[in-house]
């Protein structure tokens, strides 16, 4: 039996033993005596009774073990040309100092702190500072506009907001402070403190708004010691798109998270203390939480934090430059970034300019790694290109090729096999298992392993209805796919109204809500259509109110502006088509999937529940592929 089969089998046959063993890699204050608490099933908790501090595990323990001089975080900004390296001792000082500053502002255990920061070291410092004092951080991605920030402020009810004067996108700066001000005006909840990191490149400072300056409060504060928290206490809330406009606040605990991420760094990514590891994502996404900040630091590796793009900052060699300059042994990015590089530099001529011999593996996640991109990257880089599948909710891989455990065959198009702890199955709409090779709902039999979501923030009902009620005994992933005869999982796409644009998860429902607010629009549907670069992009179909005459280009530009202002540039909403009517079922549900199939030129079946087949036929004439 191979190491993978051995570990996977043990994780299912003896989860207590498996996860108590894994827990030994973490420094506890009160070590766990039990792994799983199933007393409130189907809601589970890991490591009841145990206590720890996550930031102390990420920093203090390495310094205490004599590794204070080892680089912990290398910040590389292609936007400003700056680079900074923080050793473990230096990062610990920064974190303890800022934790003290937060504590001086009255932030304590269990309080929420919203972090709205670009990709600067302060983002990691603020997250770890919250963890140090037992506060619960909620990072909001910088590409979201003020109303999205306001929604999160109202849901999380933070005591403090930590932000910066702004971020940088190619060719423009993004001023955060006016957005924070607008969000605070929109929100009902009123945090008592706003702390601003001043970036000289972006106008605006704390003083303009009567807020606090990061450098000042950090200089004035006494360093804070790590606070003991329960393994089951929340470490963070991360909002993610659901099928409705209201985002879901995924709650992560402290103990299970530390154990799972530590286990994953070694067994999935094959990363050891001192290795230089680079995740090219953003701290606003789960990938950034788990693998820019917590995972690499928990195992004493060096994490690279990159502010820039794969292309255009300044060219398609940016990723190769970062790998070569910092000696990264692994890169984790989204397939869309590879597609962007390939589009700009199909022959990978930029690659020849850099020595990337340190690179052992390229990891991809966030969306399906299409075989074309897989083959291109494999050929050009000459290292294994490893897909793995997970979600904000799980916080780490559900299905992966576990490079640290056993080198399994890579099948293009498949993220490989279920990770120990995850009992992955494919079932049909009635909850019956489907035969190998047949597409269905991908579900995971409960309980999920440690590190996965503990619930949704103050909304147990939505947790149950979103994930647990559809198929009792299972966690609903929202993805569809199949398992082949060899047990390899193939993830084909979402089975709900969530779409994935350039590795960013968006809800078509939230875009629809904005589009429907335009005075000329009677009703609308937004569907995720195929996009060669970004995987998918949102495409809007609107029915005008009776008697309304409007120039389609004017309508398009107004709707694009509305979506940009309400959700943010990251929604990438650019396509608007006026249609005479939307196809619906007799119960009034818009046939979004069928619309997508028509636009993408795929085969589609006319649903038996359709209200008016003529509407669908007209739509196919208007939107379908033309011969
Ligand atoms: N703050 C403000 N605006 C942001 C932003 C941020 N942090 N991130 C993106 N935006 C803006 C972009 O400037 C762009 O604005 P525009 O419409 O005015 O041009 C818009 O949001 C869409 O951004 P994006 O979808 O990222 O497109 P892009 O054309 O700028 O870049 C890629 C395309 C493929 C290079 C880029 O999407 C990419 O690097 N993707 C990788 C995604 C990733 O790492 N995902 C994490 C999961 S692993
Ligand atoms: P997020 O929560 O933003 O990480 O998005 C999670 C969703 O992205 C999943 O439910 C999938 O739909 C998609 N996804 C992420 N990784 C992969 C992958 N490796 N293969 C296929 N889909 C993926």
TrEMBL record:
Residues 4-58 form the Acetyl-coenzyme A synthetase N-terminal domain. Residues 65-447 form the AMP-dependent synthetase/ligase domain. SUPFAM superfamilies: Acetyl-CoA synthetase-like. It comes from the Bacteria. InterPro entries: ACAS_N, AMP-bd_C, AMP-bd_C_sf, AMP-binding_CS, AMP-dep_synth/lig_dom, ANL_N_sf. Pfam families: ACAS_N, AMP-binding, AMP-binding_C. Belongs to the ATP-dependent AMP-binding enzyme family. PANTHER family: ACYL-COA SYNTHETASE (PTHR43347), ACYL-COA SYNTHETASE SHORT-CHAIN FAMILY MEMBER 3, MITOCHONDRIAL (PTHR43347:SF3). This is Propionyl-CoA synthetase. It comes from Gordonia caeni.
């Amino acid at each position: 039996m191979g190491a993978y089969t051995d570990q996977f089998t043990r994780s299912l046959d003896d989860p207590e033993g498996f996860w108590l063993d894994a827990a030994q890699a973490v420094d506890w204050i009160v070590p766990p005596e039990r792994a799983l608490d199933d007393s409130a099933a189907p809601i589970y908790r890991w490591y009841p009774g145990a206590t720890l501090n996550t930031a102390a595990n990420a920093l203090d323990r390495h310094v205490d073990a004599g590794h204070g001089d080892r680089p912990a975080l290398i910040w590389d900004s292609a936007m400003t040309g700056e680079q900074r390296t923080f050793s473990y001792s230096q990062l610990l000082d920064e974190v303890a100092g800022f934790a003290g500053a937060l504590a001086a502002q009255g932030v304590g255990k269990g309080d929420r702190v919203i972090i709205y920061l670009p990709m600067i070291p302060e983002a990691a410092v603020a997250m770890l500072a919250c963890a140090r004092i037992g506060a619960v951080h909620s990072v909001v991605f910088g590409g979201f506009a003020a109303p999205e920030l306001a929604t999160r402020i109202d849901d999380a009810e933070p005591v403090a907001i930590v932000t910066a004067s702004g971020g940088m996108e190619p060719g423009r700066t993004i001023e955060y402070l006016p957005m924070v001000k607008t969000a605070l005006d929109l929100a009902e909840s009123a945090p008592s403190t706003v702390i601003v990191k001043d970036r000289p490149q972006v106008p605006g400072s704390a003083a303009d708004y009567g807020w606090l300056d990061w450098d000042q409060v950090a200089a004035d504060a006494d360093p804070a010691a790590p606070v003991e928290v329960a393994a089951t206490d929340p470490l963070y809330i991360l909002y993610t798109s659901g099928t409705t406009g209201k985002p879901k606040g995924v709650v992560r605990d402290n103990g299970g998270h530390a154990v799972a991420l530590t286990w994953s760094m070694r067994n999935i990514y094959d990363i050891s203390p001192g290795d230089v590891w680079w995740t090219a994502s953003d701290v606003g996404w789960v990938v950034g939480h788990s693998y820019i900040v917590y995972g690499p630091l928990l195992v004493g590796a060096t994490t690279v934090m990159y502010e820039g793009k794969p292309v255009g900052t300044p060219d398609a060699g940016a990723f190769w430059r970062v790998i070569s300059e910092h000696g990264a042994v692994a890169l984790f990015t989204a397939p869309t970034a590879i597609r962007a590089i390939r589009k700009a530099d199909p022959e990978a001529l930029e690659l020849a300019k850099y020595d990337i011999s340190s690179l052992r593996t390229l990891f991809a996640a966030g969306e399906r790694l299409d075989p074309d991109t897989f083959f291109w990257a494999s050929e050009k880089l000459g290292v294994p290109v490893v897909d793995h599948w997970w979600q904000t909710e799980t916080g780490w891989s559900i299905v992966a090729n576990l490079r640290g455990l056993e080198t399994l065959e890579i099948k293009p198009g498949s993220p490989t096999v279920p990770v120990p702890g995850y009992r992955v199955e494919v079932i049909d709409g009635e909850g019956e298992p489907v035969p190998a090779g047949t597409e269905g709902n991908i579900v995971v039999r409960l309980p999920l392993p440690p590190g996965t979501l503990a619930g949704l923030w103050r909304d147990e009902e939505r947790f149950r209805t979103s994930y647990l009620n559809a198929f009792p005994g299972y966690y609903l992933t929202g993805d569809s796919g199949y398992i082949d005869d060899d047990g390899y999982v193939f993830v084909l796409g979402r089975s709900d109204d969530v779409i994935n644009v350039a590795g960013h998860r968006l809800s078509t429902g939230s875009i629809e809500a904005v589009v429907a607010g335009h005075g000329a629009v009677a009703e609308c549907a937004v569907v995720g259509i195929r996009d060669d670069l970004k995987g998918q992009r949102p495409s809007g179909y609107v029915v005008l109110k009776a008697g309304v005459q409007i120039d389609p280009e004017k309508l398009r530009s107004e709707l694009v502006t509305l979506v940009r202002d309400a959700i943010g540039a990251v929604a990438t909403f650019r396509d608007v088509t006026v249609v005479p009517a939307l196809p619906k079922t007799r119960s009034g549900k818009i046939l979004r999937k069928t619309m997508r199939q028509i636009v993408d030129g795929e085969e589609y079946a006319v649903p038996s529940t359709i209200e008016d087949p003529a509407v669908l036929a007209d739509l196919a004439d208007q939107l379908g592929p033309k011969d």
